Automatic annotation (TrEMBL):
Residues 23-32 have a biased composition (Low complexity). InterPro entries: Glyco_hydro/deAcase_b/a-brl, NODB_dom, Polysacc_deacetylase_ArnD. Keywords: Carbohydrate metabolism, Glycosidase, Hydrolase, Metal-binding, Polysaccharide degradation, Signal, Xylan degradation. It comes from Paenibacillus darwinianus. The keyword Transport does not apply. GO terms for molecular function: hydrolase activity, acting on carbon-nitrogen (but not peptide) bonds; hydrolase activity, acting on glycosyl bonds; metal ion binding. Residues 23-101 are annotated as: Disordered. Pfam families: Polysacc_deac_1. Residues 121-301 form the NodB homology domain. Gene3D superfamilies: Glycoside hydrolase/deacetylase. GO terms for cellular component: membrane. This is Xylanase deacetylase.
Amino acid sequence: MRKTSMLLTAALALMLAAGCGSADRSASGSAAQENVAKPAPDSAAATDNRDQATKQSASTGAGGAGGGAIGDSGTKSTTQAPTEKPDPSNKADKAAEPKKNLYRMNKNYRFEPLAPGVADKVVLLTFDDGPKEKERLTNMLDTLDKHKAKAVFFVNGYRVMQNPDLLKLIAERGQTIGNHSWDHINLKNESKAKVRKQIGDVQTLVEELTGKKPRMFRAPFGSGGDVVKAAAADERLLYMTWSNGSLDWDKSAKNKPDAVIASVMKQLHPGANILMHELPWTADALDRLLTKLEAKGYGFIDPETIELPGTASAAAAQTKASGTDTKH
């Protein structure tokens, strides 16, 4: 009996031992599977790095064929690192880089290259007395865009007050805004105080609407004088008249686009400062005019590349000159 009891105890002990070993093996196996299914936290990055290295190797092995950015190592990669989107609240991202000065205006209000290699067969396009009417202005802006041309729109303060959205449109379309006085009066006949107000009020209004003051001034009728030039200089404005009058304001050209084109082409010269206006027949003539200028080998000066007076004293020291026309 005692012997039978001892045998039963031994058998029970063996069964318990076998069960524990099986449980241990099962737990060990589950842990091993979990380790295989879930890589270490940095193993995904390692995999990405290996994939990236494989792509770079393939690109290099193929002779760097295809596009892609030049990496720090100097080899081309078919993939690019993600770039950060500009922060709209960052003013530095908004600010446009100033363009390099390429042209200088001479005493005859013509433009000359500042350095060898800069094209001299060019003209400056300008339009006075706006902004007036949206459809016409938009048509002119579209034509300028079609020819990849820039221009100066010399505006009057009272018209800006009437059409502030049109002024903003000019700026939004990448064109340059110039100062043409508030009331379009003959400033040569006015007092110093009135002249300063006529110019200064336009500066203030344009800055309020666009965030940028004009840097160029054209006196109404091309009529200036020492007082007007000094007032413009105090505002750090480049004073100008013109060297090529389209005569689009003259009754002989009214409703005659061909007459506007003929007048400009007749007076054409390198560095021409072309005076035009926001008039229906000028808008109608503009596409053909720019096409003819291009056919003659002329390009269009970007006003933002014109050398401007850095100080009031520098502007006041400009050589006194009168425009070739004094009718507008």
